Structure formats: structure tokens, C-alpha cells
């Protein structure tokens, strides 16, 4: 039982992380002809994965978004049409009134330093 929990379950979790990185962030698309271009793409995808993990960690613990897949976070919280107003000391985002996840988005943005709606 200990072997199952310590080795097998962790291996499965690692495979799930790799699968979500490839599937939801398209990290397996390195179609450049130069190795440095492909390496830079992988670097950007790794940064995106790190940021998405931070976004998921900022979610309220009882929220369904705390365990959501990366594509769910991307589609429901990141790909939102918003009007951005750039002021002298701040950037203000105006979300649409029909945004279904506006409440959770406000909570998450308030947990990120220097960001607020």
C-alpha cells in the first residue's frame, strides 16, 4: 500500500501534469526549423504553465476553479472581453456585465498584489 501511494500515485500525478502542459497549453507544438526557436517556445510554455498554476492557487479553496483544468481557467477567466483604461498610476479593467464568473475573477485579482478591478 505504501509503495502504491508513494511511487505509483506520484508517477500518475506527474504524467497528468505533463499531459495538461501539452494538451491545454499546446507545449508540444514546436514546429520551428531552428532548435533555439523551439527552445524559446518551450520556455514560454513553461512560464505559462507556472502562471496558470499560480492562478489556480489563488482561487478560493471551495471553488470549483481550485481544481479546474488549465483550459477551463483559460477559457473562463483569461479569455474575457474587457475594456482596458490605462491611467497615469493604474490600469483599470472594465468587465462586461454578462460575465458569469465576475465574482470569482474579482476575488482572484484582489489576491494578486498590485492588481484590482
Characterise the protein shown here.
The chain is mainly alpha-helical and 117 residues long. It has one domain. Helices cover 56% and strands 7% of the residues. It has a two-stranded antiparallel ribbon. The chain is globular and about 55 Å long. The N and C termini lie far apart (48 Å). The model has no long low-confidence stretch (mean pLDDT 81).
Strand order, sheet with most strands: 1-2
Low-confidence stretches: none
Described by strand count, sense and barrel closure, the largest sheet is: 2 strands, antiparallel
Distance between the termini: 48 Å
> What structural category characterises the helix and strand content?
mainly alpha
Q: DSSP helix count? A: 4
Mean pLDDT: 81
Silhouette: globular
Query: N-to-C SSE series?
Result: HHHEEH
Q: Which percent range describes the beta-strand content?
A: 5-15%
- How many β-strands, per DSSP? 2
Helical residues, percent: 55-70%
Number of domains: 1
- What would you report as the Rg, rounded to the nearest angstrom? 18 Å
Write the layout of secondary structure elements.
Blueprint: H1 2-25, H2 35-57, H3 70-78, E1 83-86, E2 91-94, H4 102-111
Antiparallel strand pairs: 1-2
Which descriptors would you attach to this protein?
single chain; 117 residues; mainly alpha; two-stranded antiparallel ribbon; 4 helices; 2 strands; globular
Amino acid at each position: 500500500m505504501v509503495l502504491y501511494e508513494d511511487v505509483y500515485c506520484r508517477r500518475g500525478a506527474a504524467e497528468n501534469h505533463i499531459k495538461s502542459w501539452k494538451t491545454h497549453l499546446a507545449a508540444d507544438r514546436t514546429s520551428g526549423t531552428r532548435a533555439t526557436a523551439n527552445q524559446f517556445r518551450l520556455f514560454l510554455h513553461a512560464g505559462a504553465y507556472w502562471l496558470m498554476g499560480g492562478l489556480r492557487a489563488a482561487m478560493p479553496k471551495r471553488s470549483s476553479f481550485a481544481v479546474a483544468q488549465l483550459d477551463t481557467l483559460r477559457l473562463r477567466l483569461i479569455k474575457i472581453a474587457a475594456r482596458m483604461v490605462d491611467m497615469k498610476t493604474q490600469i483599470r479593467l472594465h468587465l462586461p456585465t454578462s460575465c458569469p464568473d465576475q465574482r470569482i475573477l474579482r476575488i482572484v485579482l484582489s489576491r494578486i498584489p498590485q492588481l484590482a478591478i
